[in-house]
Design goal:
The complex is a heterodimer of chains A (262) and B (231). Chain A has 262 residues and is an alpha+beta fold. Chain A has 8 helices and 7 strands; from the N terminus they run ββαβββββααααααα. In chain A, the strands form 2 sheets. Chain A has a 5-stranded mixed sheet with strand order 2-1-5-3-4. Chain A has a two-stranded antiparallel ribbon with strand order 6-7. The longest helix of chain A has 16 residues. Chain A is elongated and about 75 Å long. Chain B has one domain: 3 helical TM bundles of succinate and fumarate reductases, CATH 1.20.1300. Chain B has 9 helices and no strands. Chain B is globular, with a radius of gyration of 21 Å. Classes of the chains: A alpha+beta (262), B mainly alpha (231).
């Protein structure tokens, strides 16, 4: 059995959205290197509960890297030091005995801290609701080959759709920009035939909502791409910009009449 | 209000204005950047005539002032002034938004992918703005030049760079231009959506090549004067 770890955690503790927070130091003792990062926090929390203290609050759900719930800034990097890893997929073998670990919540005006390491990511929900969908009635399933999709587009759309909305991109961006997230959603719909009818209105509405949520703007640092647990590429941001330029140049104001149809 | 209703309310409140939007202001930044990069490149090429002697250099200056019956230079100045103005407006307005987007920072943020150039764009830009003002007062208007002669740009060029402090500031400003261009030229393609994996390596190569060329040649001017190569 490999050697157990003794660590020191510096954790952001904040009672609620209104209170100021501060860093509090906790020992994390006798931690198995086979534990996941969240299991390590579970152990620390059990100790806190036994002592009658308030456990550390953090978001988590599936604990297998697909739900996008978990996420904290670990030693200055969202989801910790490993590439393409969510916090729940990070294992304690990535740390050394005696390490000091700083834990902070995602920091963005658009994501108010609810408690400790948990933030309100409702801004992402509102961006999706502004246009991150297709409104074509699906009806009964058609033949798979009725809508031809080039293999390349299917692959790119799938790569973009791998976004789990964890918001590590916003956390990593020095400007707290949400452009990697928004562009992933715009790309995964915009690359497929079903996404075409609303492609232009979608990009305009989603960008407008992104701005209204007071996210920052991209300065092309590339930190988002490096932090993304799903490897979403900055190429998507360029596609969003391209779509936005086209949509802005060709946009027609909405009319109240139904036009000539029907 | 449902999430969808809140979203729509937010989107409508924003009014869909291109110049008010984040992407729109980034496009302004990139498009004016292209004009300014184009200008510094042409400016550098034109100035290499300093190596061809006083007659060629002064002839070039005369041509610039006389093209289109003297209207040409004012056309260029107008476009450049508008580009600089819009570039600075976009930079300031986006920077203010970015600052507001993260009111509480991290105790220890570790940069992973960003470069020193990308993180210092605001500083290099600020120094460049100060340099442009000085440069115009030094070699165009001449009011901070020790012995300015409007009829002899070549002599102004040589005597101007003989002051080590002035030459030093030019060199520092050119290094800032290098940082600004290296991130900016690459960044422009991203902001304008001109990105394709086939050309990713090329985008970096062009940014590096153009930067080294422009900055290298520009820095050579004060050095050539200080070492007596141009006299």
């Amino acid at each position: 059995m490999s050697k157990h770890l003794n660590l020191t955690l510096h954790v952001w503790r904040q009672k609620n959205a209104k209170c100021d927070g501060k860093f509090v130091e906790y020992p994390a003792e006798n931690i198995s290197p086979d534990m996941s990062f969240l299991e390590m926090l579970d152990v620390v929390n059990e100790g806190l509960i036994r002592k009658g203290e308030e456990p550390i609050t953090f978001d988590h759900d599936c604990r297998e890297g697909i739900c996008g719930q978990c996420g904290m800034v670990i030693n200055g990097r969202p989801h910790g030091p490993k590439e393409r890893t969510t916090t729940c997929q990070l294992h304690m073998r990535s740390f050394k005995d005696g390490d000091s670990i700083t834990l902070e919540p995602w920091r963005a005006e658009a994501f108010p801290v609810l408690k400790d390491l948990m933030v309100d990511r409702g801004a992402f929900d509102r961006i999706i609701a502004a246009g991150g969908f297709i409104s074509a009635p699906s009806g009964s399933p058609q033949d798979a080959n009725a809508l031809p999709v080039p293999k390349e587009n299917a692959d790119l759309a799938m790569d973009a759709a791998a976004c789990i909305g964890c918001a590590a991109c916003v956390a990593a961006c020095p400007n707290a920009s949400a452009m990697l997230f928004v562009s992933a959603k715009i790309s995964h719909l915009g690359l497929l035939p079903q996404g075409q009818p609303e492609r232009h209105i979608r990009v305009r509405d989603m960008v407008a909502q992104m701005d209204a949520e007071e996210f920052g703007t991209c300065t092309n640092h590339g930190e988002c791409e490096a932090a993304c647990p799903k490897g979403i590429k900055m190429e998507n941001i360029a596609r969003m910009n391209r779509d936005f330029i086209k949509a802005s140049l060709t946009y027609r104001p909405a009319t109240t009449s139904g036009g000539g149809a029907g | 209000m449902s999430v969808a209703e809140q979203s729509i309310a937010g989107a409508e409140a924003r009014g869909h204005g291109f110049l008010a939007s984040s992407v729109g202001r980034k496009v302004v930044m990139a498009a004016t950047g292209v004009i300014l990069f184009g200008f510094v490149t042409v400016h550098m090429i034109g100035n290499t005539q300093a190596y061809m002697g006083a007659e060629t250099f002064n002839g070039y200056a005369k041509f610039l002032h006389s093209m289109l019956h003297g209207a040409g230079i004012w056309l260029f100045r107008g476009v450049l002034l508008a580009a600089v103005g819009l570039h600075i407006w976009a930079a300031v307005s986006l920077t203010l938004d970015n600052r507001a987007a993260r009111p509480v920072g991290y105790r220890a943020q570790q940069p992973v992918a960003s470069t020193w150039a990308s993180r210092t764009m605001r500083w290099s830009g600020f120094i460049l703005a100060a340099f442009i003002i000085y440069h115009l007062m030094h070699l165009t208007v001449g009011n901070v030049h020790p012995s300015f002669d409007p009829a002899n740009p070549y002599a102004n060029f040589v005597s101007g760079f003989k002051a080590p402090a002035a030459a030093g500031f030019y060199i520092v400003a050119q290094l800032c231009l290098g940082l600004h261009m290296w991130h900016g030229v690459w960044s422009t393609t991203q902001s304008l959506g001109l990105v394709h994996p086939r050309y990713d390596a090329l985008r970096r190569t062009i940014a590096t090549g153009l930067t080294v060329l422009v900055v290298g040649v520009n820095i050579s001017f004060p050095i050539a004067v200080l070492t007596g190569f141009i006299h």
